[in-house]
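Students often ask why we bother encoding 3D structure as a string. The short answer is that it lets us treat folding as translation between two languages. Here is a chain of 285 residues written in the first language.
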Amino acid sequence: MKTSKTGTTIVAASVLLAGCAAPGGTTVPQMTKVSYYPQCYQSVALLRQQDQQFQQAMAVNTLTGAAGGAALGAIVSGGDWRGALIGAAAGAAVAATATYASARAQEADDEQRRLLIANDMSHDYGEVQRAVVAARQADNCYGYAYNELAANLRRGAISKPEAAQRFAEIDQGERELAAILAEYGKKTSASVQQYEVAFNNEAQRLNTTPSALVADAGAPPPPSATRAPAPRPTAPVSQNTKQLAQNYSRLNQQVSEINQEQSTIERTASARRNDMQSLGVAVQS
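And here it is in the second language, the structure alphabet:
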């Protein structure tokens, strides 16, 4: 099959944009020197891996938007590569929000479209849930290690220099955990924004508001939603629409959980540093 000049231009522009995209992965460096508690760091490493996978998935979505923008730019400019690049850049800029909603809007059947969006949100919910579980496992492990260390220190079963080394690893692990969670929280918040556009569009099609649609589906409102008076849907809410609203609410709650988990870990780590210092143990800043 012969490749058209426009097709070649689209491919070239998309490849060039791909070279500019982030390859994925967290920017948080490993700050934990693992010596005493490798079992605790396993969960930190798992969270790091999940953060990398989520970043890679977002990069794919961005490139999809860039490719669509390149196609439009090339067609409008008659196959000129400069027009394709302009279109690709514009596509990448909106890929996290409008591109997803526009792509799903191509499905004309309301029920099928809402089912597709609900399934996408369900997948992301599962990914976020695994991240929360990994973070809690790591935090619980380091918490148990700290409690044991503090008890041994109080009864004189361990010297203060060794306690300082052991606590340094616990503290480093908790700080690294909180830093990765902070990045993961930013990424998941950006991901939820793309669903927010699609969800708001569906609410508009049903002649209601997003918060009212969530309430009609029997799900608690997402953290940022307000329960303002709103017109009721003109038709009963279908099962797919209920699933859409419920998954949207659950995903928002998971993002809120990640942020809360990060704050809790940071507060706990700070309290432990103070406790160690009160026991006469040198704590690294």
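Translate back mentally: The mean pLDDT is 78. Keep this in mind for the problem set.
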